[in-house]
Amino acid sequence: MNVRWLGAALTIVVLATVCVMLGRWQLHRLHEREARNEVTRSNLAAAPAPIEQITGADGVVGDRNAWRTAVVTGRYDASKQIVLKYRNVRDRPGFEIVTPLVLPDGKAVLVDRGFLARQGAELSPGHVPAVPSGEVTITGRLQRSERGGRTNGGTPDNGTARLINGPEYAKVLGLDLYDGYLMIDQQTPANDQAFGTFPGPEIDDGPHFFYALQWFFFAVLAIGGLVYFSRNPIRPADAAVPVVADRNEVPEPSSTGDST
Fold this sequence. Notes:
Helix content is 31%, strand content 24%.
C-alpha cells in the first residue's frame, strides 16, 4: 500500500461517515415531522375555545397551538390594516389582508381576512373589501408568528409587509397584540366573498425517509467500492510490461562485422 492509496481510502471513509450522519439527520427530521403531525391532528380535532384560554397569560401562539380553533369577538381597526405582498395560495400569486381586531379587554389579535389573487402585473390589490362596522365574531385557526430569518419582512412599512409577526407589528401599530394571528374560517357578519380561502395543513411524512435511504445507500456504495479496490488493486498505468522474445524470430546480421 502506498501513501496515495491510503489517502484515497481515508477520504472514502470520511465521505461514507458524512453520508451516514446526513441519513440519521433526515430520520431525525422525519421523527420531528411525525410528532408535529400528531399535534396538528389533535389541534384540528379540538373544540373551539376563546383565544385567551388557548394561549394562556403570555398570549403566545406556539407550535403547540398551531391550527387550534379560536373564537374571538371585537371590532376591526381598519386604520391599521396591512397588505401582505408576495403571497402564494394554491400556486396563485397575490395578496393577503391582515387587520387587527381589538378585543373588549383592550388586547388585539391580527386577523388574516383572506387572499386576493393578483390581477395581471399589479403591485398592490386594486380593491380591498372594507371591514364590517361594529362588533364581529370570528372563528378561525390560530397560527404562530411568521419569521423570515435575516429578512425584515415582518415589520410593516407604509402599510405593507411580507410576513405576519405579532411582536413586530405591535412596535409599528402601537397595539397590544397576541404573538400570532388568526385565519378566518367563519365570521359574523360574513366575510366578503371576494376573499379566497386558505388550504388546510399538510399532514404527511414528507420526503425525509427516502432522503435517508439515499444517504445510507451512498455510504454503502462508498465502503463497498473501497473493499473491492482494496482486494483488487489497480496496477499503475506506467508499470513495466515484460517483453517475451519470439523464438522463431531470425536475428538480423550484425552491421559491424567484416565483409568478404
